[in-house]
Amino acid sequence: MHGFRMHDFRLPSTVASLTAACLALTGCGGAESAPDAPTSPAASSGAAASSAPAAALTVHDAWVKAADEGMTAAFGTLVNHTGAAVTITSASTPASPKVELHEVAGSGGEMTMRPVEGGFTVPAKGRLELRPGGFHIMLMDLAEPIRPGDQVAFTLRLAGGGTVEFTALGKSFQGANENYEPGAGR
Question: Domain of life here (predicted)?
Fold first, then answer.
């Protein structure tokens, strides 16, 4: 294993307090039932399912392309469990000081990578696949090598201020060598 290990992340105390208050109000509701309270976003690591019930957004089968230096990318499936679209505005990881949300698009017969304007939007009750040749999380300048088997921690920032934390498994992969759109990410 390498230096990027998953840590025990806990819900912020304000979210825990809000959840407790909603549960207390639900118990005092009488004949009317309280609407479902939003829960804090949670995520899974790799292929494991989230242990947090009714999480707003989860990340499944997360992996990152192993690399010695320079750039690499993270992939997986973002699953929205809510009735409203969820927008991811940015991502971060200790593995790289600069992280961008990217897409691969055709331009003049050549596939190029470029930042996604406005972030990734996961539709209500839907999924967004992060995959080579499509949407992905781009690590622009690795702090140290990512080896197969490494666990790399990530934090996604959501529109509205929430965050989702997950880990991605380092994997050897020969693809995902697209070019950059001139001026993008450099």
Answer: Bacteria
